[in-house]
Amino acid sequence: MLNVYLSGEIHTDWREQIIEGAQGLDVTFSSPVTDHAASDDCGVAILGSEEKKYWHDHKGAMVNAIRTRKGIADADVVVVRFGEQYKQWNAAFDAGYAAALGKSLIILHGPDHAHALKEVDAAALAVAEEPGQVVDILRYVLTGSLPG
To answer: I need a labelling partner for 121 at 20 to 30 A (CA). Which of 51, 74, 92, 94 fits?
Structure first.
């Protein structure tokens, strides 16, 4: 069985595509909280409000880091998706953290990000452009089967 942590952008359905494509494989998936409002507000919702936005965000980042660190530490494979619309600094941090822990790392992004992410890509064992390629990698790792 592979434990796969799906990190990165939350504005598209790439996670669902991978999970659906991996049906029948011996894979367990985990991820950060992908409800943007819940992720932003978890710290103040649990620990109390903050007047300054910095401390509001800081509390949320710390609470979210508990889940993220656990998910990455427990993962056999970490997939980090960089989307087109926003800069995902947190995704870059997750990729670096996974690399530092020696995790098998798959980076997922379009060709427009190849130059900007060259150092992140260099730490990965695979760089994919489509969620289906990630599924094909997982299938190959588990079964030795090439795509169709």
So the answer is: 74
